[in-house]
Design goal:
single chain, four-stranded mixed beta sheet, 7 strands, Transcobalamin-like_C, DUF4430 domain-containing protein
Length: 101
Amino acid sequence: MVYFIDRGPIPRKLDWENSESVYDVSKDFFKSNHIKYLADSTDGTTYVNRIGDLGDTDGNRGWVYTVDGQQPLQSADETPANDKSVIQWVYTDYSQDSQNK
């Protein structure tokens, strides 16, 4: 299941193989629901810069993802998605995070 913050759960009718990555599953979800996204690949890893109208702004804001409530340390294209995984993309403000520490 794929969720977006501020939109609540988005119903999905996706079936994926256990060999697919979080990025592969997310890409399929975005395309099948006509959600625009932008991702860049650098040094062999993929970073999702924009989903819908929200994007990375000068390194202060951006998208992070969780799988089953945990935030993996590797990029979404390196994280496997199991058939029962709950994937959530969260738009966050990093400048607020650093001010709260």
